[in-house]
Design goal:
about 300 residues; alpha/beta; two-stranded antiparallel ribbon; about 15% strand; globular
């Protein structure tokens, strides 16, 4: 099993330092989320929201001041200060962009990082973002289904082309191309999301953190979707649990459900004094990251 530290919501400068430390501490990777902006007036409802106002259940982290760096740009910066970590987007709202932009940015990040990019994708929920980029919100699921094979075709190197129901790309060259296939993971636990991951992707990414019961429910649904898809290829599963860190629990999910990768956020969940100077906040995050590595990451290997 592998452990990936989420740096979502952290100030950009602290996220860079946390990722650099994670590289030295034995984590397998870091995990980055995606939003383009915070709308002053939000009418969209987060897909899995349990709140009356429909906002994501991210607590104090969902506010206008939260840093949301572009994940592909951020990966390029992280690659410059690390040597081992893999970078996973969880998830990149690909259909809020045009196909060529997504293909170009991901292939460049893959080339810069030495092929350390995992592209986790989802359909998104914020119509405001789609409106701002000129992409159709209502067809985002169907377009993502077509975008996944289109991206693989465009990353092949040399002269490439793609002809599908939503994207029609004449012969072109897009260099630099990735030196190895970029894994594509489908995010979300709705029925369409699980179907997409099972049929089209190399793996699945959980939609947030779950209780043990919720996790087992969604993993069973994923297993059924994979059975229906009839695909036997190796399959990566990213899971995040609300439970206290417990190596035995992680091992049970690995053995019972084939979970290969666990998301953790010691740097984010550390008890940081909001009024403390930034350097003190960073020290607290780095210490929490080191403790999790000592208690869980090193023993899991």
């Amino acid at each position: 099993m592998r452990f990936h530290q989420a740096v979502t919501f952290l100030p950009v400068d602290q996220a860079l330092a946390v990722a650099k430390a994670a590289d030295d501490q034995g984590y397998a990777g870091v995990y980055l989320s995606d939003h383009m902006f915070f709308p002053r007036e939000r009418r969209s409802r987060y897909t899995y929201s349990t709140r009356e106002d429909g906002a994501p259940g991210f607590g104090d982290h969902w506010d206008p001041d939260t840093h949301w760096p572009d994940p592909l740009c951020f990966i390029s910066a992280l690659a410059a200060v690390t040597s081992r970590l893999r970078f996973t987007t969880g998830v990149y709202v690909a259909p809020a962009r045009d196909l060529i932009t997504v293909a170009k940015q991901v292939s460049t990040a893959a080339a810069i990082s030495g092929d350390r990019v995992n592209l986790g994708v989802g359909v998104g929920w914020s119509k405001e973002e789609f409106d701002a980029t000129g992409q159709d919100f209502t067809t985002r699921g169907r377009r993502l289904d077509d975008m996944i094979p289109a991206l693989r075709a465009l990353w092949a190197g040399g002269w490439v082309e793609y002809h599908g129901p939503h994207y029609d790309v004449p012969a072109m060259r897009m260099e630099p191309s990735p030196g190895a296939p970029v894994p594509i993971y489908g995010g979300g636990h709705s029925a369409p999301a699980l179907r997409r991951a099972a049929e089209l992707c190399d793996g699945w990414i959980a939609a947030g953190a779950y209780s043990v019961e919720e996790a087992r429910l969604h993993l069973d649904a994923l297993a059924e979707a994979r059975r229906r898809a009839g695909r036997q290829a190796p399959f990566t599963i990213f899971l995040s649990l609300w439970e206290r860190p417990d190596l035995d629990l992680y091992r049970r999910f690995e053995e019972d459900h084939g979970v290969t990768d666990f998301l953790c956020a010691p740097g984010l969940s550390a008890h940081v004094d909001a009024d403390a100077p930034p350097d003190q906040q960073l020290r607290t995050r780095l210490e929490a990251s080191a403790r999790f590595a000592e208690l869980i990451v090193h023993k899991a290997g």
